[in-house]
């Protein structure tokens, strides 16, 4: 009984993480609608709105005690994950004008699954299987193709790449810590606690970089979508999936984010996707499909 249900639960976990990646991939469309705030402020509001919505939902469903218990019994993972979420977003935004959006995205996102896989290999003292390495290689190849669709040159490539590397390593650390914390903490409690910490951590940085307030209706709607759907919904799915999916599998599955973003950019933002961009999307989807079948 247990042997037959475990693979099913694992596949369900991968599907949940894939869904989180797809939701995150819709964020660029919403970002495009917020034209009167700097990127860091948008990121701060994204986390803050999610924290408020999740907090209200926790109160309405009577799980406030679980949220407080998560902070009380697992303060270190909650703080590390929350600040990590804020840090890797802030570092990624900071790297974009220096190294360019394409280079920053490739380095920051593709480094995470490689780092997580290396960490799991060191922790378990086992070499990743050839199939696992091949899946990562295919996914990263697709990510490179997608990310080079709209490449541009930054003002300080070396500094930007260093920031992107730090962002990728931070995301990898958040994935690993989340994988160990998820089985002990309910998804809603973990997501509520960590997003609250992340919002508080990102607020000072957003205030220092420019305006943080807006009254434009389109911007407010977009910020609401970013917080409720892409942040609250996305991370609930992520932490639910991490209860059964490995950290390495989760890191690769979330590469659906750039694939989804590329498709939506063509369909909704009027951007053109050349042949190598289409090939990249196909490679990423193929890698995620392979993960679901493992």
Automatic annotation (TrEMBL):
Transmembrane stretches, start-end: 48-71, 78-95, 101-119, 131-149, 155-178, 185-208, 220-238, 250-269, 275-291
Transmembrane recorded as keyword: yes
Record's keyword terms, sorted: Membrane, Transmembrane, Transmembrane helix
Cellular-component GO terms for this entry: membrane
Principal place of residence: membrane
Residue ranges of every copy of the EamA domain listed in the record: 12-148, 159-289
Family label: Belongs to the EamA transporter family.
Membrane topology recorded in Swiss-Prot or TrEMBL: Multi-pass membrane protein
Pfam families: EamA
Name of this chain's protein: EamA-like transporter family protein
Location of this chain's protein in the cell: Membrane
InterPro entries membership: AA-Vitamin_Transporters (IPR050638), EamA_dom (IPR000620), EmrE-like (IPR037185)
């Amino acid at each position: 009984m247990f042997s037959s249900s475990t693979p099913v639960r694992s596949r369900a976990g991968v599907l949940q993480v894939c869904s989180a990646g797809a939701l995150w991939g819709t964020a660029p469309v919403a970002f495009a609608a917020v034209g009167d705030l700097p990127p860091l402020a948008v990121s701060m509001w994204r986390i803050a709105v999610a924290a408020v919505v999740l907090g209200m939902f926790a109160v309405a469903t009577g799980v406030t005690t679980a949220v407080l218990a998560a902070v009380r019994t697992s303060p270190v993972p909650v703080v590390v994950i929350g600040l990590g979420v804020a840090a890797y977003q802030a570092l990624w935004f900071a790297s974009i004008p220096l190294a360019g959006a394409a280079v920053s995205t490739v380095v920051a996102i593709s480094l995470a699954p490689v780092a997580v896989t290396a960490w799991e290999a060191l922790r378990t003292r086992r070499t990743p299987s050839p199939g696992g390495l091949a899946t990562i290689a295919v996914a990263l190849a697709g990510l490179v193709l997608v990310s080079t669709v709209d490449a541009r040159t930054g003002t300080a490539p070396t500094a930007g790449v260093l920031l992107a590397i730090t962002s990728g390593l931070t995301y990898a650390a958040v994935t690993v810590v989340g994988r160990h914390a998820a089985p002990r903490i309910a998804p809603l409690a973990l997501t509520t606690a960590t997003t609250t910490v992340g919002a508080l951590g990102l607020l000072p940085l957003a205030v220092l970089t420019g305006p943080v307030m807006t009254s434009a209706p389109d911007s407010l709607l977009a910020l609401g979508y970013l917080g409720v759907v892409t942040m609250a919904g996305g991370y609930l799915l992520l932490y639910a999936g991490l209860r059964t999916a490995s950290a390495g599998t989760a890191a690769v599955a979330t590469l659906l984010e750039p694939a989804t973003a590329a498709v939506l950019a063509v369909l909704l933002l009027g951007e053109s996707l050349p042949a190598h961009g289409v090939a990249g999307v196909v490679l990423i989807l193929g890698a995620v499909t392979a993960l679901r079948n493992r």
